[in-house]
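I have a small job for you when you get a moment. Would you make up a two-line entry for one protein for me to read? No commentary is needed, just the two lines. Write everything out right here, beneath this request.
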Amino acid sequence: YDAVKYVATEKVTTLAQEKRYQVLQTVRKFLIGKGYTEVLLHTLIDSKKNPNAVKLANSLTSERDALRAELAPELITASIKNYPYLDLVEKKAVELFEIGIVHSATAVDGLAVKSIVQKTHLALSIGMPKWPKKVDEARMPASILGELCVHLGVGTELVEDAVVSESKDGTTKVIEMDITDIIDLVDMSKLS
C-alpha cells in the first residue's frame, strides 16, 4: 500500500446528486399516480437486435454484448410480455415507464477512437392486445409526458424532442425522452 500513489479525483457535489435524486423521485411519484408501473430493464442487450447499441469489447455472453442506446425496444418487449396478466391486475392496458441510463458512442475529432456518452432517459409505454376504436388521448404517453413537464415546471416544448415508436404489431406505443438536462432545469423550490 505504501507504493500506491494517491491521485485526487474529481469530487461529486452532493447537492447535484441530491437534486437528481429528488427530481427522479418526483417523476416516479407522478407517473405512479397516473397508473404507470416502473420497470427496471437490463442495461446490457443483444447488439444484433439493436444496431445503435454500443458494443462491448469483452462481453460475457453473446446475448448481452452491448450497452443499450435507447429504452424503447426493451420496454416494448416488456409490455407485450405482460398482456397475459392484464386480467389478474384488472386493467385493460399495460402502462409502464423506465428511467434508465443509455449510452452512445461518438467519434473523437474524426478519429477511430470513440467517446462513450452516458445519458438519463425516460420512456413511457402503453400497450393493449386489442385497441378500442376510441382512444382516451389523456392516457397516451405523449399526454402524460406533457403533464409531467408542467408538473416539473419545465416547458412542454421539450416533449417535441421525444422519440415516438411502436411495436411491429401496433399494440404498444412508446415515447422516450432524454431527461439529463431537464433535471438541471427543474427549480427545486417550486416542486411540491
Q: What stands out?
A: The two ends are 49 Å apart (CA to CA). Helices lie at 14-33, 72-81, 86-89, 141-152, 180-185.
